[in-house]
Specification:
The chain has helices at 25-36, 53-69, 80-89, 101-106, and strands at residues 2-8, 11-20, 41-51, 73-76, 97-98. By secondary structure, the protein is α/β, with parallel strands linked by helices. It has one domain: Transcription Regulator spoIIAA (2-Layer Sandwich). Strands 1-2-3-4-5 form a 5-stranded mixed beta sheet. Helix 1 (25-36) links the parallel strand 2 and strand 3 (41-51). Helix 1 (25-36) runs parallel beside helix 2. It holds the Pfam family STAS.
């Protein structure tokens, strides 16, 4: 899992690439929560091929932290297999998701 950070419109876009699973979840969680301490975060998942339950937990924790801090957290760019996991698990009703990065930044 690689995370590239981009500053855009007063937010941090965290571009995740690879698999968000048991092996990569701890590092992703630490990085996302650290970013959320400073400003709003959009997690761009367009290069994420797979999300496990551990990955979902990371995203849920980030969403809760975003709400608690008042900074906000959203995701964008869900690929079909990842979107299916979000829909089946009900996470599409918990975490704000946008089709594209541009839409997430504009919201």
């Amino acid at each position: 899992m690689e995370i590239v950070e981009i500053e855009a419109e007063g937010m941090t876009v965290a571009v995740l690439e690879g698999r968000l699973d048991t092996a990569t979840a701890p590092a992703a969680e630490a990085r996302l929560l650290a970013l959320l301490a400073e400003r709003p975060v959009v997690a761009d998942l367009s290069a994420v091929r797979y999300v496990s339950s551990a990955g979902l937990r990371v995203l849920l924790k980030a969403a809760k932290q975003g709400t608690a801090s008042g900074h906000g957290f959203s995701i964008c760019g869900l690929q079909s297999p990842v979107r299916e996991v979000f829909e089946i698990s009900g996470f599409d009703r918990i975490i704000t998701a946008y089709p594209t990065r541009a839409e997430a930044l504009a919201a």
